[in-house]
TrEMBL record:
Cofactor note: Binds 2 Zn(2+) ions per subunit.
PANTHER family: ALLANTOATE DEIMINASE-RELATED
Highest taxon above the source species: Bacteria
GO molecular function: hydrolase activity, acting on carbon-nitrogen (but not peptide) bonds, in linear amidines; metal ion binding
Statement: the UniProt record of this protein carries the keyword ATP-binding: no
KW Zinc (keyword) present: yes
Record keywords: Hydrolase, Manganese, Metal-binding, Zinc
CDD domains: M20_bAS
Family the entry assigns: Belongs to the peptidase M20 family.
Binding-site residues for Zn(2+) 1, renumbered to this chain: 91, 102, 201
Name of protein: Allantoate amidohydrolase
InterPro entries associated with the record: Amidase_Cbmase (IPR010158), Bact_exopeptidase_dim_dom (IPR036264), Peptidase_M20 (IPR002933), Peptidase_M20_dimer (IPR011650)
Subunit structure: Homodimer.
């Protein structure tokens, strides 16, 4: 039976969104800081958060456990024991002084939906696994995706030697939490058992807000190439050196950065973006022509070809600007992470559920990294973005999600699950060799 958003909009149904917001509020009270929300990997706050999530999973009718890296895993079992598994979820760690919905919305939406199915006595023809990933943001140990990397069987044991800012080893943090490190390998899922991975996540940007839409379907999770650029001119007297005889590293940087802005604005369809988040004149002085200028570059796009084409143009521009201004330069690439395209067959089913909810399906790329990026190495993935209020601000306590939007997203996930058709067996398994190293990759 086809139902529309209006028909579904009964008080009982609206409870899905209200439940998600109430749970997010409750989790938001667990914080390492007195003011604001901070929940970093394997702190007491983080472990308390995991226990609460596991409890909600059990109350919703799932079998729940916390695995050796701290992921909270809830399984809503099909009546068919031979059934394969569809995974949904997101991360429960936060940045320092973060928002209440980043990551958590995807977990809590899935639990609310399972609770609804369980209350109605509805079973699914596949096992549904809800994973609350323990670590995605890379805050405490400066290494992202600790949770999902274990799920895909790519947790690098060398990570256990990482230290937090107090010099505490990741290995000791896990051992103190009572985790059995010898079982980390066993967390890896068998890709042949997986039907796919679907993640609901707050957009963390202003695009849906601008489009006046509650949700959008993600086409691809942008990869990133990051560079450190050093320009070397000549520092000389600001009063005595005529304009024509200067080798000013900062004005060279300015010319380059204006080009980065212009070049990245040219390719909207690829969601190309370029940013120089760090820009310095080392030892600069008010009366000295900048002898050096250092800046970072972060170039992202929804497809790697568009991103690489922009990078090539930017590198050529750096060369010509430096040549004409007699500036020396070095460029060091510090990160290269390929983009993770979403699977068209999953996007189509998500799109159909969006349409059945009375919302125009709208596609957008994700500029931020997400757990889906790692899951894409072993199974097909899709993502549903939810509108982010307050101008799209995220990684900030001002991050907001309306109860209506939380509810629409939950109903779409519910409807998607009830209509879900697995992809025919051939070709669902992706080669692990496609994997690219993205350990240093951060949102
Ligand atoms: Zn997130």
């Amino acid at each position: 039976m086809m139902t529309t958003l209006k028909q579904l909009n009964t008080p009982q149904q609206h409870a899905l969104g209200a439940t998600v917001l109430a749970w997010a509020e409750q989790l938001g009270t667990l914080s390492e800081d007195n003011n604001g929300l901070t929940c970093t990997y394997m702190t007491a706050t983080h472990r308390e958060t995991a226990v609460q999530i596991a409890q909600w999973m059990r109350e919703a009718g799932m079998h729940a456990h916390i695995d050796a890296v701290g992921n909270v895993v809830g399984r809503f079992l099909s009546t068919d024991p031979q059934a394969r598994t569809l995974i949904t979820g997101s991360h429960y760690d936060t940045v320092r002084n973060g928002g209440k919905y980043d990551g958590r919305q995807g977990i809590l939406t899935a639990i609310a939906v399972v609770r609804h199915l369980n209350d109605k006595g509805i079973s699914l023809p596949f096992h549904l696994e809800v994973i609350a990933f323990a670590e995605e943001e890379g805050v405490r140990f400066k290494s992202t995706f600790l949770g999902s990397s274990a799920v895909i069987g790519q947790f690098d044991p060398a990570l256990l030697e990482l230290q937090d800012r107090d010099g505490i080893l990741l290995r000791d943090v896990l051992a103190d939490a009572g985790q059995d490190l010898s079982t980390i390998d066993a967390i890896a899922r068998d890709p042949s058992d997986l039907l796919g991975y679907v993640e609901v996540h707050i957009e963390q940007g202003p695009v849906l807000l601008d489009q006046d839409l509650p949700v959008g379907i993600v086409t691809s999770i942008a990869g990133s190439r990051r560079f450190l650029v050093e320009l070397n001119g000549v520092a000389s007297h600001a009063g005595t050196t005529p304009m024509a005889l200067r080798k000013d590293a900062a004005t060279a940087a300015a010319e380059i950065l204006l080009y980065v802005e212009q070049r990245c604005a040219e390719d909207k369809p690829s969601s190309l973006v370029g940013t120089a988040g760090q820009l310095q004149v080392p030892n600069g002085s008010v009366n000295v022509i900048p002898g050096a200028c250092h800046f970072s570059l972060d170039i992202r796009a929804g497809n790697d070809a568009a991103r690489d084409a922009a990078v090539a143009d930017i590198m050529a521009k750096i060369a010509t600007v430096c040549q004409s201004r007699h500036i020396g330069y070095t460029v060091e690439q510090v990160v290269e992470a390929g983009c993770a395209p979403c699977a068209p067959w999953l996007m189509a089913q998500l799109s159909a559920a969006v349409e059945r909810a009375g919302v125009a399906p709208f596609e957008l790329a994700s500029g931020a990294g997400h757990d889906a990026m790692l899951m894409a190495r072993v199974t097909d993935v899709a993502m549903l973005f939810t509108r982010c209020g307050n101008g799209g601000i995220s990684h900030n306590p001002l991050e907001t999600l309306s109860v209506d939007d939380a509810d629409v997203a939950a109903r779409i996930l519910l409807d998607f699950l009830r209509h879900f058709k697995p992809k025919p067996a051939r070709g669902t398994r992706k080669a692990q060799s496609e994997a690219a190293t993205t350990q240093e990759y951060t949102e």
